Input
Amino acid sequence: MMPSGETITPSHHRCSGRLCSAIQQLDRRQRCGLAGILAGKVMLGVMDLFMAILLYRFFLLLQGNGNAMKMPLTQTSLNVSWLALIVLIGFVVRMIGEAGIIRWTNGYRQHLYASFLMKLTRSYLQMNWTDYVKRSRSDLIKCCLTTAQDGAYAYQLITEQMAATAVVGLLTAGCFVMSI
Output
């Protein structure tokens, strides 16, 4: 809700819940960016799970367990050097992916911050003159800055929470499938 009493973007349909309300505040491009960041974070989480499985098998192999060479679902067998190379490449790809997602998230948050700041400033400029002069301009500016910053950070937390939930869901589904 803006100081003038208006919402940031018009709602075309009823929305229930805070998450839905938060998503409606974004334009189409911002929603696509949020979805892309979420997909990237989920992919990193899935990659972490696969890397944990590969490392576990690698350590079993180093301890002399010959069954660690057989990969489930593929019925292929790897030798020590191939498994070590796959683990090494996996870690390098994961580190590059993490750096890319961090950079993308920071850029997205900065653009979202600028967008919120412009919307809030525009709303303050459209305030009734008598309401505007009742408040200190420094308070209005401070309110704009902190609200925009807090809003942009909240979307980062939303993606973190949704990605963690998706990864836990995939892990649970994987455990269920492997038990069948």
User: Anything to note?
Assistant: DSSP finds five helices and no strands in the chain. Residues 6-11 have pLDDT under 50 and may be disordered.
